Amino acid sequence: MRLLTRYCDFKILGGKRSFFGRKKYDLGTCNLVEPGIISPERAVPDHIVKPDYYFGYKPPGSDDGQPEIKTVDQIHGMRESCRLAANILKKTCDITKEGLTTDEIDAYVHNEVIKANAYPSPLRYMGFPKSVCTSVNNVACHGIPDDRKLMNGDIINIDITVYYKGYHGDCSRTVLIGNVDERGCHLVSSTEASLNEAIRCCGPGQALCVIGRTISRFAKRRKLTVMPAFLGHGIGSYFHGPPNIFHFKNDYPGTMLPGMTYTIEPVLTLGDIEAEVLEDGWTAVSVDNARSAQFEHTILITEDGCEVLTLPD
Q1: Distance between CA atoms of residues 236 and 187, nearest Å
Q2: Is residue 24 one of the residues assigned to a domain?
């Protein structure tokens, strides 16, 4: 997940306010989340193959700035890494429940990835301190696992990426904890549906901007808001790179080509579009304390359509 701006406001991205001030939203009820205590970095055994950024800062992206068009062998590698990520995500969602800390989720993901002889891609990526992103309630994206226990009524996005045999596979889901109120359930189900709508639009020769237009129309029908600061991205031998995938209505250039792989990962909210990043440099929260949800798949454009690579067995 790329962050378009550190602070997303109406002037930058063209949102609208009512004449008499800020629009009113039905936010429902939830427990507000504040950062907790972060445990030390988890060790990665010597035998695990690590990406370059493990050993020092490296800017994200491909070497030439162009979307990577995969060969047959590269597509095979992507299928393996994405399937692994999807299976670990499924198992993680199954064990996620009230009373579990997000740090315990991190430990579980870390151990599952290592057992598979893979590397947890978020760890050390541009300084991120953990092996998974866990974003709860008003945390929109890039939440750092800590000692906070999940509470009845929470919603949590679990974002897993693995680096396996030279390729990154990336996916996420939002999980309901206990009895979530009606607005929260509507938000989560609608966000997943918006992702599925966008995937149905993907195929060779299609404009990349159709993804954002589709998600925006869908969110509007469901009376939800797209948080435009958060982008999908190209993925492969690099974690994040071209093309950028915008989830809001746009006319940016770019065409889907066979062999292209990228993520679609909309963040929808019950409230306003504005987000800000906390002092840790990662945790992005809604300015109005509204909840958001996110779902993500890695997509391959084929000769006659598209393939969702991050489906579990």
Answers
A1: 30
A2: no
What pTM was computed for the model?
A: 0.92
Instruction: For residues 269 and 253, give the distance between their C-alpha atoms in angstroms, rounded to a whole number.
Output: 26
CATH number, domain of 258, equals 3.90.230.10
Residue 169 lies in a domain: yes
List the Cα angle 73/76/77 in 5-degree steps: 90
Q: Is 35 among the domain residues? A: no
Overall number of domains in the chain: 1
Here the tokens at position 284 are: 């992005």
> What's the CA gap between 216 and 63, in Å, rounded?
32
Residue 229's domain spans which residues? Answer: 2-10+69-308
**What pLDDT, in 10s, does the model give residues 97-109?**
999 999 999 999 9
* Omega before residue 67 within 30° of 0, cis: no
- Measured CA to CA, the distance from residue 85 to residue 121 in angstroms comes to 10
**Residue 221 placed within a domain:** yes
- 114-142 per-position pLDDT tens digit: 999 999 999 999 999 999 999 999 999 99
Which residue, among 252, 270, 257, has the nearest Cα to 299 in the 3D structure? 257
Q: Which residues have CB under 8 Å from 78's CB, separation 6+? A: 70, 167, 169, 236, 261, 298, 300, 309
